[in-house]
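Re: Re: ligand-bound prediction request (bumping)

Still looking for help on this. To restate: I need the protein modeled with flavin-adenine dinucleotide bound, output as structure tokens. Inputs repeated here so nobody has to scroll up.
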Amino acid sequence: MAEKFASRRNIDFLINEVFNVVSLNRFPYFEDHDEETFKMILDTAMNISTDLMFPYFKEMDTNTPYWEDGKVHVHKAIVPFLKEMGEGGWIQCEKPYDIGGQQLPLTIKELAYFLFGAANYSMHVYPMLTAGAANLIYQYGAQEMQDMYLEKMYSGKWQGTMALTEPDIGSSLGDLTTTAEPTDQGYYMIKGQKIFISAGNSDITENVVHLLIARLKDGPLGVPGISLFIVPEKRINENGELEDNDVQCGGIEHKLGYRGSPICQLTFGEEKNCRGWLVGELGKGLAQMFKMMNEERINIGIGAISKISAAYYAALEYAQQRKQGRKPDQKDPATPMVELIEHADIKRMLLFQKAVMEGSLALALQLSLYQDLAMVGQDPEENEMLVDFLIPILKTYPSEMGILATSAAIQIHGGYGYCGDFPVEQYYRDIRIDPIHEGTTGIQGQDILGRKVSMKKGKAFELYINEVEKAIAEAKAYPELEKQVEALESAMGLMKDLTAELLAKKAQISNEAFLADSVLYLDFMSQIAVAWQWLKLMTVSVTALKGQPTDQDRVFYQGKIYAGRYFFDYELTKIDSLAIRLRSDDKVTVEITKEFFED
Ligand SMILES: Cc1cc2nc3c(=O)[nH]c(=O)nc-3n(C[C@H](O)[C@H](O)[C@H](O)COP(=O)(O)OP(=O)(O)OC[C@H]3O[C@@H](n4cnc5c(N)ncnc54)[C@H](O)[C@@H]3O)c2cc1C
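Reply:
Sorry for the wait, this slipped through. Here it is.
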């Protein structure tokens, strides 16, 4: 099995040369950090990934969790990993010192999480979900709630989940049916069923803390009726002991991939004894839950990039080892066969994976940097708007492209890639969930076209345009990048015109017609956002090449320029055909009705 799942050199390039993350220490919150502390943290993350996670990547796919007598039994390799997560403070490392955090930039935390995901995504999901659930309690929970839960969750002893989905309610969360009935004891009685709850039950943590959305009994229909609750699997009684809270796990699903982590069917209140505690305000549950969902959408995007990275390095290793055929101009059968990596078509597939992976990772860091700046009060409104605007792109682009990228990794392996001896078929199966959970691609498409481009009277869109134009202006100093600068300038012109046309048409057509091709619009926007990041990566690389790089660094920067050239020529060019379709008034998907699909 391939040994490399991510490039440490690329990570250093991103934090030091592209995003200058260390400059965040000009803000008091981050002042204790410098390049050395970042290096140490990422070295440790790499060691954890290599020693505690990667060795179990395949094994956890084979020895999957199983349900027996109401309990889910999971792979025991997760235990030392969770202990390490707790003791090393990885779950709350971006939080303030006074609650046990390390005041680390999210930019660095996300890179550590990227490494964890690349090494073993099924294992990584446990602390990732706990971090998201704990963040909700931290942001909206009363002080006594924080005192009761956070320390246990940060230590990795109590697992956190997000409990949204129900058997009949997935994307349409406003229609959910789980109920919460107020009592005069300060808690609510919870009743209902949730399904597909990741890490929702296991035999390795003392307790599971569900962050659950439910409808106030007899409350209004739709979103205003929904509130957020903490519903622990075991509640703390008056004596400070854990007692059963009437949360039952009725089984787990058998899945295509991401098999090391169970998704659970949970019943709340079957014995009419399930208590939940309101988090934040009544009726604001969905809005508050969006805090966690947005965080998880970013995590899903980064998790997809992780899997693309691991599959890419596996394919690269194979392409360098396997010999097959000769170059098209070499006709002599007496000459030795060449390594796969000598073939242009193999290089095309490797370039595709590299371009998608590294461009997306840069986009992920760009978002984290906006979050870090917002957190320390640097233009918070603007930075938060940029994050909000870009979330559907970061969630979707690596998830959807990742299916193609991991498929290319299989293709490079030929028949061996389709078989279990090599890891790439697992990456392909593992990544398939990413366009589905945390809001499907369809929902993300509606989000960007239906909400984000016109959000705050188009302010977020305008801010985004300024950001891309800044990168273009910087790249203009380099004649070597003239072609890419022109391509991105033209893409931005097209984006502005097309978006204005679509928004102008909105008033004349139904909402259904307006949103019918929103996924194509999201694809269009994603290609441009990743091209923006590639232009930045290329600008830094061209600058570095003008210095006196070592031979090894020269190759590194030239590799970036090749991948950037690939992205602009092979990927960004797709926006023209997308624009043709998006401009079309032929609404075939709206017109056709169900009878025409028969036969
Ligand atoms: C491995 C895994 C892990 C998960 N983890 C969790 C978890 O931890 N917590 C949790 O709460 N849930 C979890 N889920 C559930 C997941 O979030 C849902 O599966 C997802 O939100 C989609 O809901 P659904 O499956 O009901 O599909 P549906 O909502 O039925 O959607 C089916 C299809 O219809 C489309 N569609 C739906 N509505 C519309 C519409 N209005 N307009 C256009 N198209 C539409 C969708 O885009 C999709 O293509 C998990 C699921 C899986 C498989």
